């Protein structure tokens, strides 16, 4: 038996949660917080700019600051959840998110609004913490099914955030109501977390590598800032080049430090192991696919028909008519994907998912003249992303010790964020140079989505590592390998 498999057996939960269905439902609400906070603010950026009498460039920092805060804090919070009570860390993050939501709801200042979004950036860590809690509380043959539910909620929540925002902002009232909604929702989630998440003593020992955490935060933030602002600053601008070069240098120095640290923030040996490395690279590509579909579709359907393509949809129409079917498809696919991951292995499921993604993006590129074509293509693309979000963390979890689950899944979440940022930058370059983008720009975006799905499929196919989760589940109980019922 390999080291990882031995560690997996040793880290199995000593006492499982008495009501696993309630725990999964409660953590799904926690994860829904992440998705809503990510997407709800995007449709109201223009409204914020008008109501605060500021420029679109200034308001764009509402999104950029949130992303940078996520990159800086997610690995550290993931490590804290490995070392200390996961429930306390979860509630601490939710308290920070609540403070950010309240501040955003009451302020009329751009700097304070950006500060609020920095606080809300801590929400990105809620998903890896929730995965770590599931691993601690559930038997292994329930774990992948539960993770699939959470991943489906993550994808579905993005669509929900857009729809709810569209309904709230009908008639263009004050943007503050969006943040009052996130405030009320976060309060409800805190109550749920207090009730359903048990308190456990932490078996893992160790300490936080604060220097490593600072180095990783600085390096990631610099690189992501260059990626997100490169289109507006100019890719050859000294600031962009300096951030890319400086951030890369810091990350190289961080890697050197972590290799030599007695108790590193994250094990570089783990990150460099072939299955983890290829899985995280594939996660970058799936994250790119999400934003190629989300941003590409959202803007494509809102292009006026006078341009010769598009459907002239409003934000609400785009959300409900064109995006929600895909989000619902992704959620349903995620609910059942755990069965197939257990039966056939995560890698085979990912290959099928990537095939669906390629088909969806190619259809978007070459058959987008009728609404039903766009909707069907969006459903295929969302199925791909949802299956990817469910299977990729399962691969990561199957390769690491229980005491590393938080930091390992946090790094996987950062890989997804990097992919989304790169895709957003590509979309901005292709669509931002004209007031009304050309149709070929959208075709290029959708073809890029197909290419990213194909590359993800290749990476997973060549990893050639044994599917440890499938093996261990079979060993635990053949009769329960297909049982992912919630109660």
Describe this structure in words.
With 487 residues, the protein is mostly helical. It has 2 domains: 412 residues, Growth Hormone, Chain: A (Up-down Bundle); 52 residues. 78% of the residues lie in helices and 0% in strands. It has 19 helices and no strands. α13 packs parallel to α17. The chain is globular and about 65 Å long. The relative contact order is 0.15.
Offer a quick outline of the entry.
Pfam families: MFS_1. This protein has 487 residues and is an all-alpha fold. The chain contains 19 helices and no strands.
Look at the structure and give the mean pLDDT.
Answer: 85
For the biggest sheet, the summary is: none
| CATH fold-level topology of the largest domain | Growth Hormone, Chain: A
The low-confidence parts are 1-12, 473-487
Overall structural domain count: 2
The number of E-state strands comes to 0
Distance between the termini: 32 Å
Q: Give the H and E element order.
A: HHHHHHHHHHHHHHHHHHH
**CATH-level-2 architecture of the largest domain:** Up-down Bundle
Which CATH first-tier class of the largest domain would you pick?
Mainly Alpha
Beta-strand residue fraction: under 5%
Full CATH superfamily name of the largest domain: MFS general substrate transporter like domains
Helix content: over 70%
Using the CA coordinates, give the radius of gyration: 21 Å
Task: Provide a count of the helices.
Answer: 19
Structural class: mainly alpha
How would you name the oligomeric state of the polypeptide chains in this document? single chain
Shape, per Cα inertia axes: globular
Keywords: Membrane, Transmembrane, Transmembrane helix
Subcellular location: Membrane
Membrane topology: Multi-pass membrane protein
Transmembrane segments: 21-46, 58-77, 89-108, 114-134, 146-169, 175-196, 208-227, 239-257, 277-298, 318-337, 349-368, 374-397, 418-436, 442-462
């Amino acid at each position: 038996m390999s080291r990882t498999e031995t560690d997996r057996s040793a880290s199995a939960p000593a006492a499982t949660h008495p009501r696993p269905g309630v725990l999964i439902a409660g953590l799904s609400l926690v994860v829904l917080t992440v998705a809503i906070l990510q997407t709800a603010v995007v449709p109201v950026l223009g409204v914020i700019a008008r109501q605060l009498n500021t420029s679109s460039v200034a308001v764009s920092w509402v999104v950029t600051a949130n992303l940078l805060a996520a990159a800086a804090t997610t690995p550290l919070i993931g490590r804290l959840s490995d070392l200390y009570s996961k429930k306390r860390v979860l509630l601490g993050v939710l308290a920070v998110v609540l403070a950010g939501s309240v501040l955003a709801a009451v302020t009329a200042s751009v700097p304070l609004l950006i500060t609020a979004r920095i606080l809300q950036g801590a929400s990105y860590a809620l998903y890896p913490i929730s995965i770590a809690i599931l691993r601690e509380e559930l038997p292994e043959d329930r774990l992948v099914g539960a993770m699939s539910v959470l991943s489906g909620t993550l994808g579905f929540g993005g669509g929900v955030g857009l729809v709810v925002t569209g309904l709230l902002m009908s008639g263009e009232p004050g943007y503050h109501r969006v943040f009052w909604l996130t405030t009320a929702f976060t309060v409800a989630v805190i109550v749920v977390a207090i009730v359903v998440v048990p308190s456990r003593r932490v078996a893992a020992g160790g300490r936080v590598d604060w220097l490593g955490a600072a180095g990783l935060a600085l390096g990631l933030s610099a690189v992501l800032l260059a990626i997100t602002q490169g289109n507006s600053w100019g890719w050859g601008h000294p600031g962009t080049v300096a951030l890319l070069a400086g951030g890369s240098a810091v990350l190289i120095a961080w890697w050197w430090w972590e290799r030599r640290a007695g108790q590193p923030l994250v094990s570089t040996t783990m990150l460099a192991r072939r299955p983890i490395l290829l899985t995280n690279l594939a996660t970058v590509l799936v994250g790119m696919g999400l934003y190629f579909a989300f941003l590409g579709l959202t803007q494509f359907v809102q292009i006026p028909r006078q341009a010769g393509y598009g459907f002239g949809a409003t934000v609400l129409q785009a959300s409900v008519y064109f995006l929600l079917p895909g989000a619902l498809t992704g959620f349903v696919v995620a609910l059942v994907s755990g069965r197939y991951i257990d039966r056939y292995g995560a890698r085979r499921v990912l290959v099928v998912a990537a095939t669906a993604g390629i088909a969806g993006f190619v259809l978007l590129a070459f058959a987008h003249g009728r609404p039903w074509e766009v909707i069907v293509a969006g459903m295929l693309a969302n199925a791909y992303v949802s299956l990817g979000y469910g299977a990729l963390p399962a691969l990561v979890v199957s390769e690491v010790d229980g005491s590393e689950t938080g930091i390992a899944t946090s790094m996987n979440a950062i890989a997804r964020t990097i992919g989304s940022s790169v895709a957003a930058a590509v979309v901005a370059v292709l669509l931002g140079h004209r007031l009304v983008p050309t149709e070929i720009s959208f075709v290029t975006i959708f073809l890029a989505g197909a290419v990213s799905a194909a590359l993800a499929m290749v990476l997973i196919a060549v990893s050639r590592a044994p599917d440890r989760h499938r093996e261990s589940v079979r060993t635990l109980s053949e009769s329960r390998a297909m049982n992912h019922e919630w109660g």
